[in-house]
Amino acid sequence: MWILPIEPERIRTKRLLINATTKPMVSYACYSSNPNGELRELPDTSQGKWVLLNNMMQIAEVPLDRLPETPWCVEYRMSQLGIRDREYNVTPPTGVLRIPVFGDSFVLGEGVPIEKTLTNQTLQILGPTKFELMNMGSSGWNTHRELQSLEAAVPHFHAKRAIVVFTANDVEITPELESRQGYINDLINIRDEHLDKHQEKAWYNGPSRLVRFVGSSLEMRLIGNETIQWYKDMYDERYNQANLMRFTSYLHRMGARTDCKIAFVLYPLMEGLEGEYPLAEVHAKVAQMAKTAGMPVLDLAPAFKGQRTKDLWVHDSDHHPNGKGQAIAAKALAEWLRSLPGFLDPPPTASSTTEAPRSAEPSTRPAETEAAAPAPPAGN
What we know:
The protein has helices at 105-108, 118-126, 143-156, 175-180, 192-200, 209-234, 237-255, 280-292, 301-304, 323-339, and strands spanning 15-19, 26-31, 40-41, 50-53, 61-62, 72-77, 97-103, 131-137, 161-166, 261-266, 297-299, 313-315, 318-321.
């Protein structure tokens, strides 16, 4: 350890680069390396107004001259309606089944190019001439906000089918649960600023390089285990009863719709996929709640079983599913949708007419949503 320059791995988390000149804004998630070959080099920032932000809970600006620390990026280009997708006519083309897909950053495709997102890869399997899968994902959204978006978008876009994608942090939590999570590693993002503060006070932070190397590894494993238990407690009535009751009511509002058939999909966090998925009991509980609400349910966790978890991360600091992970999910989702009786049946041609885009139409997002650029979220 003394002879070789061995140190604990220094994780440099992603940052958000925003081109504030363009309308709608174009932003880039920037990373220190390109482990999967899916990222591209930084855009030219010599012209226009650019802002670089950190990935902390309290978002703050970073001097633009530090951009070379994160030289690899993925682009987020948003439509006029603030979705990471193309512009859509109000009504779908004749004979095309439109399916908006609601969810958080896993649907948005945080950390992956747009062609590798869940909606795009699923669409390529189903057939882009017969279907439209609208990417209605937004970083940091929970089920309540997804429901608000659904209730606005379904009638506006004349959608007769919709998909809601759930991840384990989609339920609202109490202040007590919030205080237990340091967000050093929430199983999705690792935030170096939080990690630095934690390590300054850590028991292993001394002169011994060996102790620091071993201690930091053990500490991160302990933090991961504590976070898994934190997720489980979010779905335990002893700790989160009122929010779970509200969550149940949101599911019943989805399942009770008569104008649109909704499919409910559970997307696992990219954690512990080699063996028994650590949040399997959470998925089982939520799946039963959604079925009781009257929705068909797909749990994607079995499709990931046996995969090497790290191979599916966007980056060591960003544990969103990369293009390979999204491909696994898309294949399982497409096969399941095809098996649902009547779900992919073509729409009646008599009621399907094409209109010109209406840029002044009411927003399909809830009024309290953030700006279109996907700012680094708290748990997503």
